[in-house]
Amino acid sequence: MSRSVLEGTRIGTWQWNVQTGETIFNERWADIVGYTLDELAPIDINTWLKLAHPDDLPESGRLLEKHFAGQSAYYDCKCRMQHKDGHYVWVHDRGRVISWTKDGKPLMMYGTHADITEQKQAELELKASRDQFQALVANIPGITYRCKADSDWTMLYMSGSIDPLSGYPASDFINNSVRSYASVIHPEDQSRLELDVNSAIAEKRNWLLQYRLLHKDGTMRWVEERGQAEFNEDGEVICLDGFILDITEEKSLKQQLLKLTSQLPGVVYQYQQWPDGRAAFPYASDNIKKIYGVSAEDVKHDATFLFSKMHPDDLQGLAQSIEQSANNLSVWQHQYRFFSNDSHPVWLSGSATPERMPDGSTLWHGYIEDVTATKQHYFELERLNKEYRLSQQRLDIASETAQMGFWQASLKTGELWWSPVIYQIFGLEDSVVPSVALFKSTLHPDDRQLVANSEQKALETGLHDVVHRIIRPDGSIRWVHELAKMLPAEQNPQQIMVGSVQDVTERIELQQLKDQFISTVSHELRTPLTAIKGALSLLNSNKLGQVPDAMHRLLDIASSNSERLAQLINDLLDMEKLIAGKMPFDIQPLAVVAELQQAVDNLQPFAMQHHVDLVIEAVGASMVLADALRLQQVLTNLLSNAIKFSPAGSDVKLIAQQQGENVQIVVTDKGAGIAPEFQHRVFERFAQADGSNQRQKGGTGLGLAICKELVQQMQGSISFSSKPCVETRFVVSLPIAGIALSADSKGENA
């Protein structure tokens, strides 16, 4: 009977002699694993062990030993068996020991063997589904819940994400086992939440709430809750389902954003425009009051009235820019004028990124600021640029007319920039790239060292001032005057020099013609003038007889004028020799004090005639390198000028002092001084402050020019300073004896 029942349930059976291993299975047992009993023969306990999954054997052995030890009434094990086709099936083995050996060991054991593969598969699928759901809920950045619609919001289910948000586990809130959810809601928010939720339930709609939770550690967290009620067929509330999200950081960032936007000079905004033309600012920072003179609430739902305050001239352009941005979804950028509360328009500059909304409207996210001050600066800059361009045009015209160009060069890198006129001066094509090397290639061979010396001097003094010749590509020679300045080396590592160059060919040629004319006239006048002077001297000596008194005065005047003319001719000839480099120099060590004393002795009668005292002061100066004759010529000229222009009863000082490797000889007087407007011409030829035909002090206008040439030929320099009616100083600087002479001073001029 029992066997028939088992066969009807398709359950396999087995009996096992635990001591011998002999085992008996029925056909159903073999069928479960895809075999017949004949295929499994011979059958013993090893047949089962071979088909069982290796990973399940330890657990099977443990359960068997537990039953043998009397700790369980049955051996009950679920394990996997390998099917004949190779896959595994799940089986449920259940049995018990029914007889024991005399010494208490298990002998015979009977049991059942049921196929539970489908049941196990369903369990595994259910577990996988449950695990997937739990993983999904756990990964949601918020809390899912189901609760009763009571005052405590008694939780029926709550995900574990409540733990970090409140500091309490979800189990505390389930059925209010430890505390209610309402107990962690901020007291100030509870009545508002209850009112909003009840209102949503009554209207059978969803709710969206923001409120505060009190954390276990005493801090406060902001949350956003979305929920809805579930109703039965009778319209009664069954439960409430919802989702709670932590928005504490979002709230904090929003507060920071509000603080930041309040510090911005402009307005951060969202501008929305619908196809029907309606416009609004869904969001605008508080500074919209400064920009448009309205509050954010005033334009939150309708802002079309603002267009009436736009400047009429800018309204069309503004509308077109908005339309273009909306059509192309391109960034909007525009500047326009807006009439604020007063009658004066302000310039506004805006930019925004558009976004198409589901209802067909366009929403811009952007920023607008007042740029009135910037615009005014821009307009002023435009005005100045126009003036600059006009000035530049005038300068270009003047530069071209005067044949003067401007340039900037780096003596270190060889880079050179120059203005267009220089192309004309040097006869070069406009396509030629200027460079220092190109410039030097144009220099006349005889003037290259002159230019190099001037550049080297500029490194020391900061001034480059030289007149030289250039050779144009067509072979013609032009004279140019370069004048430039260079900053000190510590401020100018690239050795940049900025200056001008002017074509002075006509001036040089004119000067050469004038010099030739003066030279010719001087030589032609010298012989007859000598005869005239001799005749006048003979007449004045009375050797030819007594001259009448009336004629004597005329002869004195003629003699005086002939002396002045002779002096002029001598000065002209000296200047000619200096310029031509034909004046001989005998440079040798000279005793400074002796030279000063000789000059004073020579001019003492002239000083007494003008009631002026001559004073010598020598401080640390002993020997100087110079030509004795030329040095006396310089000192005589400077002293005679100082005496002539000094008031009666004053002193003229002759001071000698050492300055580094030079001796400075200074001539000072307390006369009227040199007028500021004339000072730049002091060392020019024929330059005289008193240019009238009846000059009070006399002179040829060549003395100081000759002094400059003489001093420079002796490797020295001459300068002056003058404060009218206070003091005038002429300073001659010459090398101390012992300093090597240059090649020029030892060569053809020696």
| Strand coverage percent | 25-35%
Query: What ranges have pLDDT less than 50 throughout 5 or more consecutive residues?
Result: 691-696, 739-750
- With strands numbered from the N-terminus, the spatial order across the biggest sheet is 2-1-5-4-3
* Rg computed from alpha carbons, rounded to a whole number of angstroms: 59 Å
Overall mean pLDDT score? Answer: 83
Class by SSE composition: alpha+beta
Shape: elongated
Total beta strands: 27
Domain PAC: 75-128, 207-259, 464-516
Domain Histidine kinase: 520-738
Keywords: Kinase, Phosphoprotein, Transferase
InterPro entries: HATPase_C_sf, HATPase_dom, His_kinase_dom, HisK_dim/P_dom, HisK_dim/P_sf, PAC, PAS, PAS-assoc_C
Structure description:
This protein is α+β, with helices and mostly antiparallel strands and 750 residues long. 39% of the residues lie in helices and 28% in strands. It has 21 helices and 27 strands. Helix 16 (505-540) runs antiparallel to helix 17, helix 17 (549-580) runs parallel beside helix 20 and helix 18 (592-609) packs parallel to helix 19. The radius of gyration is 59 Å and the shape is elongated. It starts with a helix and ends with a helix.
